[in-house]
Structures are given as structure tokens and as C-alpha cells.
Write a structure and sequence with these properties.
This protein has 385 residues and is an alpha/beta fold. 40% of the residues lie in helices and 15% in strands. Helix 12 packs antiparallel against helix 13.
């Protein structure tokens, strides 16, 4: 297993981190999905025994069960003391310091530990950053740090690059969890954002390296590009190698759902050349070509310009089209359906569309938006995880 310095923390983290948001599932009697506890424990313990020492969870993962499962798995052969646990706490405008303290105590109890290695403010973005500052959330975290309940302070990020620059330079963070992969070059943290974090001595944990599993399933046009290279690698390995090539990346968080995935990833991350700067010019060009091939697979010509909004019914039009296109781009709809489920829960799904047609004349690409939304809805509905 390759290891890297985790920013200024003094800890050497495994380059492969295990994300506890996609633990092994089991079908319940009511047709929903729950965590297969036996397989989840085995997966986590195998990871520790084979060099993985960085684990990422959050208060809300798996319906609130993720931290409990991780704690139970690590309460075995003194595993807790061998690993780094990062977990997250969400922000609400009406949250109180007492509630945050109660939630921290609950998290510690679930994880069967007396401290967290890192506690992140979950999901900082343009919509909540002002409120986080007004509530002095970082000061509240510092109080917990002084009490020895948390060791380091950080945040996970969902927003644009310009706003990321503001957040990352506002406070002496210890760790950032941000999204980056071979496709999302201009969204969220970006490669430039990773460099900025490194220049400030901040550890960068990268999430969604495979875009929810999509990048592990290459469509024909992309697979042909990979197959043209003399060294044969899986699509997942190419995606991991793109990130491992960056010196600012401290650890790469992958949500592995079965033992086969875990073993394959451990083998990839244990190769001696998985180090910064390892990609040759030819390999870098191959990844660029693969990215261009992915981007050419667009079913609905939506550019997310958002001229079509506001929708009178608050339907997330461009988001629905993005999710639908991603499913076709990867030839893999599981993650797209899951994302659509989260969009639909607060009432932004296509089921709220009334065919009013207000959006149609606004679209610069002439998309019949209501008709295309219905097509997308039929492919995206039905996630019951």
C-alpha cells in the first residue's frame, strides 16, 4: 500500500481510503436495501489488515448507521488505534452549540471511540458559508479540540472553484474532502484547487474518484481508447492513476461495496509506481482522449446554462438532464438513479412537472424540455437503496 503525508497532521495515510457510504447491501423483506453487517465488518477489517488506514464516514450515511457499523468493525483486535477516522456533521441555520455537542457525543458513542481524528463541517458551499461564519462553527469545533474530543478540523465541499478559494484561505484547516476525477475538470474543487490546498499545507482527501462507480464502466468508445494503449489497465485504474499522479492528493476515498472491489483496489494502490508524477506524457494524453470520448456521449444537448429556470414547480431541470446523460455516458445508471432519488425527495423531481411549457422558449438549444424530462424520469426513477 502506498502512503502519503496527511497535510500537516503528521499522519501517513494510505493512498486508498475506504468510504463508508456504499457498504455492502442486503435486500430487506420490505424490498428496501439495508447494510449487510457481516459483509461490512469483514470488508472493513480486511481493509485494515491489508494496509488501509483511512476511513471516511458521516452522520447521515446509510440512514445514520454508517458510524455505528464502522465503530463495531474497528472494535476488534485494537484496530481503532491503527486507523484515522474522519466523519462529518451537517450545518443548519438554526443549529445550536448544545445540539452540535450532543451530536458529537452521539458520533463518538457510535464509533466506540473517545476522539475523532478529523471532524468535518459537512458540505460547505455558497449557500451555507455565510451562516457557518455567523454561527462561529469553527470556534465551536476548536472548543471540542481543546477538550480532546477531536484532533483536527476540516470540511467537505460542494460548490464552485471561485468560492472554494475563499473558504480554503479563510481558516487554517487541517483537511478538506473534495470531489475530483478525470471528468469533472471545471466543477467543485478542480485540479487547481487541490494545488491551492497543498500550498496551504492542508491535506486533500478526494471523493468520487470513480463518479459513484460510473468511471469503472467504460462505454465502447472509451474502452477502445484504453485498449489501444500497450499497458492494459481497467477503467477504474486509469481513473485512480489520474488522481494519484497529483502531489497535492493525500488520500483517495473509494466507496467499495464488496470484497472483490476492495481487493482489486488494494492491488492497484499497492503498485510501486502509484506516486506523484508517475504518468508519462503518453498516459496523460490517453486520459485526455478518454475524457473527450466520455464528453461526446451526450443524449440530451443540455449545457446546464439554466436559462430554463426558475421552473414554476421548482423542477431541477438541468440536474435531471445531467443525471440522465451521465447514466448513458457510463452505461451505468445506479449512481444516476441514486442522485435522482435525492433530488426528488425535496420535491424537485420530474413528477412535479405540469407541462406548463414555460421553459421551452427559454432553451437556446431548442430542447422539448417537458418531453425529455419524462424520458429521463422513466430511466432515473426507482432507486430503493
Amino acid at each position: 500500500m502506498q502512503y502519503r503525508e496527511l497535510g500537516k497532521t503528521g499522519f501517513k495515510a494510505s493512498l486508498l481510503g475506504l468510504g463508508c457510504m456504499r457498504l455492502p447491501y442486503i435486500d430487506r423483506d420490505d424490498m428496501s436495501k439495508g447494510v449487510n453487517l457481516e459483509e461490512a465488518y469483514e470488508l472493513i477489517r480486511y481493509a485494515v489488515d491489508n494496509g488501509v488506514n483511512y476511513f471516511d464516514s458521516a452522520q447521515g450515511y446509510h440512514g445514520g448507521e454508517s458510524e455505528t457499523i464502522l465503530g463495531a468493525a474497528l472494535d476488534h483486535n485494537n484496530m481503532r488505534e491503527k486507523v484515522w477516522i474522519t466523519t462529518k456533521h451537517p450545518f443548519r441555520p438554526d443549529i445550536t452549540p448544545d445540539e452540535i455537542k450532543q451530536n458529537l457525543e452521539s458520533t463518538l458513542k457510535k464509533l466506540r471511540t473517545t476522539y475523532l481524528d478529523t471532524w468535518l463541517i459537512h458540505g460547505i458551499g455558497p449557500g451555507n458559508w455565510e451562516g457557518i461564519q455567523e454561527k462561529k462553527i469553527m470556534s465551536i469545533y476548536e472548543d471540542f479540540k481543546a477538550q480532546g474530543l477531536i484532533k483536527h478540523i476540516g470540511f467537505s465541499y460542494h460548490g464552485n472553484f471561485d468560492h472554494f478559494k475563499e473558504v480554503v484561505t479563510h481558516y487554517p484547516w487541517d483537511l478538506i474532502l473534495g470531489m475530483h476525477n478525470i471528468l469533472d475538470q471545471k466543477r467543485e474543487v478542480t485540479a487547481e484547487g487541490i494545488k491551492i490546498a497543498a500550498n496551504h499545507g492542508i491535506a486533500m482527501a478526494v471523493m468520487e474518484p470513480l463518479r459513484g462507480g460510473g468511471l469503472a464502466h467504460a462505454p465502447k468508445v472509451v474502452q477502445e481508447i484504453y485498449d489501444s494503449f500497450p499497458v492494459k489497465r481497467t477503467p477504474a485504474e486509469w481513473a485512480f492513476r489520474y488522481l494519484a499522479n497529483m502531489p497535492g492528493v493525500s488520500t483517495i476515498i473509494s466507496g467499495m461495496s464488496n470484497m472483490e472491489q476492495l481487493k482489486e483496489n488494494i492491488a492497484i494502490f499497492s503498485q510501486p509506481d502509484m506516486i506523484p508524477g508517475h504518468l508519462t506524457p503518453e498516459e496523460e494524453q490517453l486520459i485526455i482522449s478518454a475524457r473527450q470520448a466520455y464528453e461526446s456521449i451526450i443524449t440530451i444537448p443540455c449545457t446546464a446554462c439554466n436559462y430554463c429556470i426558475p421552473c414554476p414547480q421548482n423542477v431541477g431541470i438541468s440536474t435531471v438532464f445531467t443525471q440522465y446523460n451521465d447514466g448513458h455516458r457510463f452505461g451505468f445508471f445506479d449512481q444516476a438513479r441514486r442522485s435522482y432519488m435525492f433530488l426528488s425527495r425535496p420535491g424537485r423531481g420530474v413528477d412535479k412537472c405540469t407541462d406548463c411549457g414555460v421553459c421551452v422558449p427559454k432553451c437556446p438549444h431548442g430542447i422539448d424540455i417537458p418531453a425529455q424530462l419524462k424520458i429521463a424520469h422513466e430511466r432515473l426513477k426507482g432507486w430503493n437503496g
